[in-house]
Amino acid sequence: MSTLVLTLPLGPAAPAADYSYTLTADGHNATQQASASAALLPDPGRTGEVVAVVPVRALSWQRVTLPPGALAQSARLRAVLDGLLEEQLLDDPAQLHFALQPGAQSGSPAWVAVCDRAWLRQALQALEAAGRPVSRVVPEFTPGPTASGAEECEVLGQPEDAYAVLTGHGAQQALAVLPLAAARALVAQAPDGEEPPAVHAEPAVAALAERLLGRPVQLRTASQRALAAARGDWD
After folding, report:
1. What sign results for the dihedral spanned by CA atoms 51, 54, 56, 61?
2. Which 8-state DSSP code applies to residue 11?
3. For the whole model, what pTM was predicted?
4. Residue among 47, 1, 52 at smallest CA distance from 22
5. 68-94 pLDDT, tens per residue?
6. Could you tell me where the beta strands, DSSP code E, fall in 14-150?
7. Which of 122, 108, 44, 33 is nearest to 70 (CA)?
């Protein structure tokens, strides 16, 4: 079964907006990768699926502890999240879309992904109108344990707008997005007895990351990152 993994543009949905996409047959290797408008995206086939990746800079992350019974009904869960997050958010909760961490349990801390509800709805409607309805929506990066079990750093963007994404950060294994220069102190040094975070970088900013961080980086493309996001259990 083929899967079309595409990254949603940060701006408003528009017919001419470009989507970076990867077509895969096994979830790990790309058979095709490029950018195209919604109307020109490849067809994953009748039995295939479309997975939309939400860019890291379109999301914020909040930590909550659910009260007993919150997971019993989906309608009640939304009301509970509104109450828990109202004082933590700058925007009206009614304007926001919430996604609760898979496997969350009452009484235990859990992460909530937050993004603009209208932006997400418009993006999904544009894809549906182009004949590419989305089966799953996943975050580009998530907080929580990393694949390596240690803190990791990914450098993205362009040389004039490079930024670092830290995952598995701190005691709560949080996610942090920082300008590359601001991340230098966190990445270049580590507490005594600990290894500094592993660093991956997109090809466009790999040389810049090595120069600013003072250490070698491993290349990871946007396509590889999107496939990894699609293999996660978030939706």
Report:
1. negative
2. S
3. 0.91
4. 52
5. 877 776 768 888 888 888 878 777 888
6. 18-24, 30-37, 49-54, 60-65, 96-100, 109-116, 136-139
7. 108
